[in-house]
Amino acid sequence: MLLVGLAGCLLPILPGPPLSWLGLVVLKFSSSFTEELSWKEVLLWGALVVIVTLIDTVLPVLGSRKKI
Q1: What is the rounded distance in angstroms from the CA atom of residue 56 to the CA atom of residue 21?
Q2: How far apart are CA 18 and CA 37, in angstroms?
């Protein structure tokens, strides 16, 4: 999921940040990284993903509406 999310940064058809965050959630549930990654960090990154996704969606619309 992390690699697909990374590819989503370059390919406009894939939503990169949400896929990377899902990879982080999968990593949280894996047995080897449970103690190293807290739920607080996972939720913080989730909030940042929501903010980045909203900005990525809204900014092009606002930019195309602005007349020069």
Answers
A1: 16
A2: 18
31: pLDDT strictly greater than 70? no
Query: 18: closest CA among 45, 49, 40, 44?
Result: 49
Q: Where are the domains of the chain?
A: 2-65
Distance CA 65, CA 46 (A): 29
Backbone phi, psi, residue 65, to 5°: -80, -25
| Contact status, residue 38 vs residue 28, Cβ threshold 8 Å | no
Please give the Cα distance from 19 to 17 (Å, whole number).
Answer: 5
SS3 content of the chain, % helix, strand, coil (to 5): 70, 0, 30
What is the pTM (predicted TM-score) of this model? 0.73
pLDDT of residue 66: 66
